[in-house]
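Fold sample X.
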Amino acid sequence: MSKILFGLVGIALISSCTRPGSLYNGGQRIANCVTSEPFEVPVQEGCATYVMYGQDTVAIVTQPMTIQIPKGMKVSTKGSTGDEISIEYEVLNDTDAKIAYNKSWQAIMFEDTRSGDYDYNDLIIHVRNLHSWNKLQIDIQPIALGSQKVIKLGCVIGNDKSKHIISEDVRKDLFGGEKGFINTQSDLQPVCYSLECRLDHELEKGKDEYASIAWFIEVDDNRYFAINADAEYSDYDLLNEEGMPYGLVVYGLNGSHGTFAYAEEKISLFEAYPDFKNWINDAIVSICFGDSIFTIEYAKKYIKNYLNTTDPNRKKGAISEFFVHLYLKSKGLKQECIYTNMEENSPKKGFDGVYSSNTRVWYMESKSGSNTSEEHKDKISEAYRDLKNKFEGNVSNNPWLNAYNHAKAVNTSGEILKVFADYAMSFDTDSHDIKDFNIIPCGTIFLDDTSKTNDSVKIKDAVAEYLRKKKFAKVVGICISQKAMSEFENFLDR
């Protein structure tokens, strides 16, 4: 069977693909890129304080301790009622007992040069930090390697700033010597790596303080630190001459496992990633009108008018579809369509999107829903069925004629245009099998109900299992968790 490429995308992941903007205050840039904030764990005499996230224990303390939690995370002292941290107290049998325990998840992303392309995929790892008593255990799961250079990975721990080299060569030590780009190309089968202990560190005796960790890489004898609230950075190299960070740390808890969900769910896109608006501005005209002389201001007005004239469900669909276009363009696919129907400011009457990559043509369908009643798999399934019906001719409108007109408007190659024209002319008589086409079914879930957790592993497994049973030439499944609807609308007014 043809391979499945699965993409689980949070908006923060999208927003990490920024473009260099104007240089401004470095301290402000660093503050904007920090995704966590300090939290002073409260204590009661004779009790141990349990910091919980769902069923997962984040920290246990008997003495005041400051830990890092995702920025904007709600804290409840009345028990957990959803996606928030709860504080619980338990009476100690031995009031003199001292406990110190803390667990955190992080996603760490690096550029490998002083002036990069800012996709932050030259090295991506997930990290679990277990701090118990005077011991610190660091577990690492390799995620992606988009650099051909030799990368050394290390960290600086605690107030004593002890330096530790995790790996002299991450490709060899973390990625098993796998050659080429790893998990950064859309047409390759993803490689999964396990979570393994990479460092055991003994902290200073008699202290229960949270141990800060500053992550860095070394490339070509240059050391680059990732921006993180976990450490004091006065002596660290964090920003290049354009004011862009060398590395980013996205902080998470149990349900996110250090993935990008918390930046998406808890932090304003424009706060956490100040150049996100520039990235959208760079693409918004081409998404709406192809290569044209239209202005950014007009494109924003065009989309705003479109959103204002649709019902709430259709508005969600339109916003989610826009971000799919944005994401696919960031991955280097060529857009062979425009955002809305050309004849009027309304949804397209054919495929939601048509893209090309080298000699391949990809057909995209985007569906959206709410996490109060639906899951990503439901939307992927709906998108797949919609694509199947269009290929088989079980729709009233001729999708190939629409695809032809859109492609012509964006100067698509004659070879692709001929395919669309031939299919359009035979629409009433011929039926086509979805197994002969490259497809991109997309499912966006808007996080209206924050009491539900967003388990990326379960989402991936459920969608992958569904797609394994379906027919296609090649497939890219994209799942997006979205909570930036209002912020996108506000952006259109800026």
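Fold sample Y, listed below.
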Amino acid sequence: MALDQGTSSSRAIIYDALGQVVTVAQAGIDLVCPADGWVEQDPEQLWQSILTVGRTAITQSGLAAEAIKAIGITNQRETTLLWERASGNCLHNALVWQDRRTAAQCQKMATDKLVDGRPVAEAISAITGLIIDPYFSSTKLTWLLDNVAGARQAALKDEICFGTVDSFLLWKLSKGQSHVTDATNASRTQLFDINEQAWSKELLAYFDIPQGLLPKVLDSAADFAVADAEWFGAPIPITGVAGDQQAALIGQACFAPGMSKSTYGTGCFAMTNTGAARPYSKQQLLTTVAYRIAGQTSYALEGSIFVAGVAIKWLRDQLNLIDDAAETQAAFERCHGDSNGVVVVPAFTGLGAPHWQPDVRGLITGLTLDSSRDHVITATLQSVALQTAELLRAMAGDGAGVNTLRVDGGMVVNDALCQFLADILDVQVQRPKDVETTAKGAAVLAALGCGQLADLEDAASAWQLDQTFSPLMSRESRQQLMEGYARAVAQAQAG
């Protein structure tokens, strides 16, 4: 069983021994935004949603709980929690990866130096493969320690735990027996040395974080914990864990260096497997742990976009232009993929890669009296692909050019989006039969961890192609669209 705790929802998917879906259960998750740029979630809702979907999936399947061989967990990554060791209760709402409240701290970090005189930005890049941005867990954790009453004192007394969502769920499922994470999630905290595969003492000292707060780091397929029988009806081993984007890479069977995927959920995340190589980007991309299995680490080059599917939700919930996400394809087709000059820059929580500007805000440009509802919808859908094009151009600049892109996530059921992606990227886009590859990756890791799969090659053989989309757009049209988007981004950056 895969437990997929995402930004917008929690899901449980049960797979059979051949990797086919038996049943799916899903529950929505609320976001809390107490101030501009602040994004939180209720930890109790995260926990209860996982219990609900797990129990529902088992009931729907008709299986006895004892028939579930293992659990794999995948999760929204950088989201940060602090909880009491004694009770498991959190000290504050979870600070979600989208949260930008530490932007000022990050600005100061850009000019700071470590005690050895190295610029902090340089050290963070060399040690973690990341850049300075509120996106990551480090500054979120320091904010909690400094702003939640009694938190720092409790940390010094070893009374509280830090973790990303996977660690929190493992703690709760094991009733406090396991304070662990895996290497992929650790690599997103900005506290983990991806070269040494250990917590960085230099960065812990810089951020003033006691090491006792941190979970033990395991391989992505390992004995993480046992889910107590109270939760699902029988004790179930948890043998696979990975952050959601790494899990999607695994679910897409991108195991060879050079293979690439892009996931379209709340945000968009493009990732290229680089194998044992750790390329340090000159294009403001991220180097991260792709997975660690049997002590062997594979790395990836990643570009992160903060707004993808959430832009479609914005069209529905805030602008009331659609009632359902499926309507976007019809609108796109009515316009024949032409936004009539309208461009949307969906920088609702700042710009991610390759810009990394947390203070930029979104805009709509190119509006005229001829602009229609369908033009705005089309431009919003196009913005997802145009952001992806920025990422792939940056990857090419780092020597990791992409010829074929495997896509997944809820948005890619939209044929119009997939075709526009192929057109604007000028690459073949492959959509698998199972687009929920994040959960699939968690299941693969669990199967590896419990011995049901022998190796990654077994997992690769189960990947099935649904459709390939080939580029049809002219070079001139592609260039015109990219230049128009670049001008709009520049307008957004200028404020």
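Sample Y note: The first helix runs from residue 43 to 61.
Also: Residues 2-245 form a domain with the Nucleotidyltransferase; domain 5 fold (CATH 3.30.420.40).
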